[in-house]
Amino acid sequence: MIANANATILHVNDTPASLYLGTYSLRQAGYHVLEAMTGGEALKVALEGRPDVVVLDVKLPDISGYEVCRLLKADPRTRETAVIHTSATFITAEKKVIGLRAGADVYLTQPFDPEELIATVNSVLRLRRVEREALANAARLEEADRKKDEFLAMLGHELRNPLASIALAVQMLGQKDSHGLSEADSRRRDIIERQVSHLRHLVDDLLDVSRITRGKYALRRGRLDLNTVLHHSLAAARPVMEERLLVLKEALPAEPCWVDGDRTRLEQVFTNLLDNAAKYSPEGSVITVGAHVDADHRVHVSVQDTGIGLPPGEQERIFELFAQLDTGLARSRGGLGIGLTLVRHLVEEHGGQVSVFSEGQGQGSTFTVTLPLLADAVRPEASVERVEAQKGEWRILLVDDNPDAREGLSEMLQMWGHTVVVAADGHEALTLATPGSYDVIILDIGLPGLSGYQVAEELRQRVASDAHLIALTGYGAPEDRVRSEEAGFDLHLVKPVELVEIGRVLAQLGPVKRGAHPRQRVRARSA
């Protein structure tokens, strides 16, 4: 017998002899034992004594042991108490099912050997101890996961802020108004721009994979031509391919391939596949992007390279998180080993599949994405979006605690002809933002003292709809966007933002309607 002086057992039986023998055996085993002879008394003692286990006869003079068990399990105060049903009558399978469904853990038939009773109690206590440890571990893991999420959100914000400043400065060097760059300086500027773009994608992938694996992710789906997505991905990949002396070819259908998808995330899928092909391909390799539609109304997009290939064992695990080929070429090209994990999750979220085939090392690889086409899709009217900065139209208040970001964006906005006033924190912004002073307020969220959310709420209360309110921030999770809208922002832009995107946003802002409630204005989609 295993003594457990810390455990309390409630023994419930209306037969004095059975009650005495069971209690005596349990006490001999070292347990603290409470007693009851009716169902009502058992419920009262259970609430007062909080036993670890209830040894409960099913036949009681007032209410049945089944009902006592059900009531114990329904009460949050006694829900975790283990219950062992006992019965002196013939036990049928049906009765066992009734007891187990009521919440009992075990069923014993009387008369039972004292050692059988003690062994059963010990077994139930062990299971309860394991359950409590598992719950405690789960709570610790949940807390660790919460802290990890907070850390990743802060990491994204802290990384995006300097990236935004660098990206903005580099983009300004490439504006038409910038003169005097030598050919060598132009090449250096292009290098910086490519590397900043690479860093931005690494940060996005890191944060995205955390959200996707936790299920905190939602696609913004709509009808779109997959060919357009592929052309954008190819355009983004070409500079990297040229830098690495790779040949990029395409074989896309002449007709549109209409799918129901998230344009940004599908571009991320194919950009990651192209980046993966480039990473594992030596100089002079050929990378081909092709697409075709099958008889089942699906589109198959392949990214084929003539690089180092995949051994059979690697093909099974290449989509796993943090998986990377252990080769000098791959390591020299960097990466976090999460790009293909993102590809798989995003493709499956679109109702598709992704697969890889390679004949072996040195034989190249082919990744194929299969997506369902929209049935009888009507082609929307073709439109060409022209983005031009509006000249001299807006009075803008720019609020950012990063002096480089503040100075760079302010200079660019003034080059476009806007009138710009800057603030370094929320308190200064609230001092400057008097009613009617500004048409647009561009506001960082991660500000010292007052957060951007608090500033936005205060601005909405004080100046009502006197300005378009735009969040320009390093926080880009879905919950951040929801919180922005609740605080009163009209737009949520995630750093680093391309200058052309800022120009597009300013160009699309409508005239401010003085006195209108902010929720009555048409909101532009978050970028």
Automatic annotation (TrEMBL):
<feature type="domain" description="Histidine kinase">
    <location>
        <begin position="154"/>
        <end position="375"/>
    </location>
</feature>
<dbReference type="InterPro" id="IPR004358">
    <property type="entry name" value="Sig_transdc_His_kin-like_C"/>
</dbReference>
<protein>
    <recommendedName>
        <fullName>histidine kinase</fullName>
        <ecNumber>2.7.13.3</ecNumber>
    </recommendedName>
</protein>
<feature type="domain" description="Response regulatory">
    <location>
        <begin position="395"/>
        <end position="510"/>
    </location>
</feature>
<dbReference type="InterPro" id="IPR036890">
    <property type="entry name" value="HATPase_C_sf"/>
</dbReference>
<dbReference type="InterPro" id="IPR005467">
    <property type="entry name" value="His_kinase_dom"/>
</dbReference>
<dbReference type="InterPro" id="IPR003594">
    <property type="entry name" value="HATPase_dom"/>
</dbReference>
<keyword id="KW-0597">Phosphoprotein</keyword>
<dbReference type="Pfam" id="PF00512">
    <property type="entry name" value="HisKA"/>
</dbReference>
<feature type="modified residue" description="4-aspartylphosphate">
    <location>
        <position position="57"/>
    </location>
</feature>
<dbReference type="Pfam" id="PF02518">
    <property type="entry name" value="HATPase_c"/>
</dbReference>
<dbReference type="InterPro" id="IPR003661">
    <property type="entry name" value="HisK_dim/P_dom"/>
</dbReference>
<feature type="modified residue" description="4-aspartylphosphate">
    <location>
        <position position="444"/>
    </location>
</feature>
<dbReference type="Pfam" id="PF00072">
    <property type="entry name" value="Response_reg"/>
</dbReference>
<feature type="domain" description="Response regulatory">
    <location>
        <begin position="8"/>
        <end position="125"/>
    </location>
</feature>
<dbReference type="InterPro" id="IPR001789">
    <property type="entry name" value="Sig_transdc_resp-reg_receiver"/>
</dbReference>
<dbReference type="InterPro" id="IPR011006">
    <property type="entry name" value="CheY-like_superfamily"/>
</dbReference>
<dbReference type="InterPro" id="IPR036097">
    <property type="entry name" value="HisK_dim/P_sf"/>
</dbReference>
